[in-house]
Amino acid sequence: MTDIVPAPQTPRVPVRGGGTFPVRRIFCVGRNFADHAKEMGAAAPASKAERGQPVFFHKPADAIVINGADVPYPSATQDLHHEVELVVALGTDAPPGVLDHAQAQALVIAYGVGLDLTRRDLQAAAKAKGLPWDTGKGFDHSAPISELVLAEHVGDLASRSLTLDINGTRRQQGSLADLIWDVPDIVHELSKLYALRAGDLVFMGTPAGVGPLVAGDHFVAALEGVAELKGAIVAS
After folding, report:
1. Cα dihedral: 42, 46, 50, 56 (round 10)
2. Residue 38: pLDDT above 80?
3. Overall average pLDDT of the 104-113 stretch
4. Quick check: 174 pLDDT over 70?
5. Is the pLDDT of residue 168 over 90?
6. pTM value?
7. Which of 63, 10, 22 is nearest to 200 (CA)?
8. Which of 8, 42, 44, 160 has the smallest set of CB atoms within 10 Å of its CB?
9. Could you tell me which CATH number the domain at 12-234 has?
10. HEC profile of the chain
C-alpha cells in the first residue's frame, strides 16, 4: 500500500562512541524530587512507604532538540520554565507483564541529561481546572537532550548530581540519591501501564529551582561526570 503523505523521519539522539538512538516514545516523571514537589505546592512523601504512585506524562518523540541546537521560544506562553533531568534510554523490548526491578534495570542501555521545558502558565491553568497538562508539556522543541552515554560507562547513578546553569549562574542542582523513585522503580511502574520498547526515553524528574527562560538565555545542563547539554533560547 502506498503512503498518501511522506513518512516522517524518526528522531535520533547521538550516542557517545558512535551511532544514534532512534526515539520511539518519551515518558516523563513528575514530582520525583521532594524539594521540587514542595516548591510546586505538592506534598512530598516522608518515606518510600508513603510514595503512592508516580505521576507520568508524555512528550512527542519529535520534541527532541539535539545538543548545541537553538531552542525556539514556544508559542502561546509568557512563562517558559526549565527543568533539568536525568534521561534514561531503553535498549531492549520488555517481556510481557510487570517487570521486577532486576528486569527493569536490564532494559536500560544509556543515560543522558535533558531539559523538560514547560509552558508553566498553560500548565497552571490546566491544573486549576483539573484538566490534562498536555499543552504545557508536550509541545514542539520541549525536550532538549545531550548525547547518550552507554550505561556500562556510567556506573552508579546515586553518587552523581544534576546541575543547570543559565547565563553562567547556577539555577538547579540536585543529587540523584534524592530521587523519590529511582530508575528501576520507574521502569517497573511504567511496565504496569505500557508495553515498553527499545527506543523509549524516560525523563526522570527535576530537583528544585525551576524558573523562567527568555529569548537570549544560554543554558548548560550536566549529569555530573557523564554528559553535558548546551544550547540557547532564541526568538521564534
Report:
1. 40
2. no
3. 98
4. yes
5. yes
6. 0.96
7. 22
8. 8
9. 3.90.850.10
10. CCCCCCCCCCCEEEECCCCEEECCEEEEEECCEHHHHHHCCCCCCCCHHHCCCCEEEEECHHHEEECCCEEECCCCCCCEEECEEEEEEECCCCCCCCCCHHHHHHCEEEEEEEECCEEHHHHHHHHHCCCCCHHHHCCCCCEEECCEEEHHHCCCCCCCEEEEEECCEEEEEEEHHHECCCHHHHHHHHHCCCCCCCCEEEECCCCCCCEECCCCCEEEEEECCCEEEEEEEECC
169 to 160, 196, 221: CA distances (angstroms): 20, 37, 11
The pLDDT, as a whole number, for residue 44 is 66
Cα–Cα distance measured from residue 218 to residue 35, given in angstroms and rounded to the nearest whole number: 25
**Cα(127)–Cα(136) distance, integer angstroms:** 10
| Residue partners of 147: CB distance under 8 A and separation at least 6 | 13, 14, 15, 16, 67, 112, 227
Residue 1, C-alpha cell as written in the block: 500500500
Q: Which phi-psi region, left, alpha or beta, contains residue 19 (left: φ > 0; alpha: ψ -120 to 50)?
A: left
Q: How far apart are CA 60 and CA 134, in angstroms?
A: 10
Distance of alpha carbon 205 from alpha carbon 29, whole angstroms: 5
